[in-house]
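Page header: ASSEMBLY MODEL / two components / 548 residues total.
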Amino acid sequence: MPDTDVRDRDRQVHGLDALELQPQRGANEVGPGDRARALWSATWPKLVAVVLVLAAWQAVVWSGWRTEFVFPGPDKVLPTLFAEVTTPEFWVAVQVTMRRALTGFALALAVGVVIGLAVSQFKPLRAAIGSLITGLQTMPSIVWFPFAMLLYGISESAIMFVIVLGAAPSIAGGLVSGIDYVPPTLLRAGQVMGLRGAQRYTLLVIPAALPMFVTGLKQGWAFAWRSLMAGELLVIINQQNSIGWALSQARQLNDADRLLSYIIIVLVVGIVIDVFFNWADRALRRRWGITA
Amino acid sequence: MTAITDTPPRTAAVDINDISKVFGHGGGAVTAIDGMSITVGTGEFLSIVGASGCGKSTLLSLVAGLDRPTTGTVDVWGHRVSMMFQEAALFPWLSVGANIEVPMKVNKVPRAERRARVGELLDLVRLTGFERKQPHELSGGMRQRVALARALAQDADVLLMDEPFGALDAMTRDILHDELERIWQEKGLTVLFVTHNVREAVRLGDRVVLLSSRPGRVISEFPVEGERPRRIDSAPIAAQAAAITDRLREEVSRHA
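Prediction written out in full:
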């Protein structure tokens, strides 16, 4: 081939590549102003939502539906909330609850992954317990508590037992469907490249199943958190401080300000964890190139 | 280089000896391939054309060793075989560079060497500097070139291609024909290239094998005349393609 021909082809290939790649719209020109604007446009709807909720809440209080003694307005509750979060007892309670949440979730994760892998590997097992997993997911976890307390007594183990029963099916389910829906073209490509045994899992199946697995984790977390809150209200262990215990204490003392403060805290913890999972989910999707 | 059509017979890289492949049993059995024999010389570019149901994907699976023939034998004489599909089938969670590394990880190539090879292979497919891109950031043609680099990273000298350019636009396909021809010559590869597109088959092949459908058998073989590099729109290519297309149409009408 003459040299000019080679150079021509080179130019053709690079020209076509340049045309086919999407122009990067100002990707290099993100200034601090742009970032602040992006942050603001993500934040203001949430601020509006908070204001709306507070306004509706205050409106109900002003309507005189219940006395302020049992249904105080934000003007009472918010100062109590701020006072509460500055006490060491509050942080002890949060610490105890979050430790239980994380331990329970970790246990559920381990159990869910083992069951998920087993079910996706062995056909008879899938036939036997595949639908059981779906069934368990629909069960309100609170119905397990009487049985859990019978098994483990009034102990943290009883709470863990229910968290695992609540969260593990979602985690296992996410893993199973993630593995089931690995695109066949990728499996074929892997086969051609000689991916076998453990490598087939570490290099192909597990990463391919990750987005659905994360969805399962997110759902599993939601179940774990609900089970834990139910557990802390029902299974009160030696007056040990926790968010659930603080809630039931506040009710017994008819301390509506504190009661509502802790409800807000439960909500906030839920939202924070949800934001984390959504962030993980989005990061994965962006990397996989499946952003809508 | 090599691969001029009138060179003496080369040693065989792939021997397909009287194979048949039957799927299923009893009344529901389907014969995909029946009594097919093809010999592919080392360094040869063999195009395989056929209508739907000619068992071409089955044939490639048998050569790749992913499946066994019902009768007959397939010999690749110790050559390493890799394969490309119509979809690039890159792993979307890995960067371009990491995708090319996958077969080298399977072959336990040390990390430093893998990095160096990725650079060389990207240069070869003219994607220098795209190492850190994610597959979804690339165009279809670029993804196929990454898939080619990944196939070559397997250190294979026999490359099976199952309609690799079928999903690309004509312009991109033309340019990739040039690219594939260049890389095949540089690397001295043996290529089995399956396609529906007769012109593409003639543009690329040293020889075109025409298959019948249901079951797949070899109807005839056509040596391709013409100096390389060829152009798909040149008169000799068009004339040879027309002759093969006529034969293919005959075969298709047989099923009416």
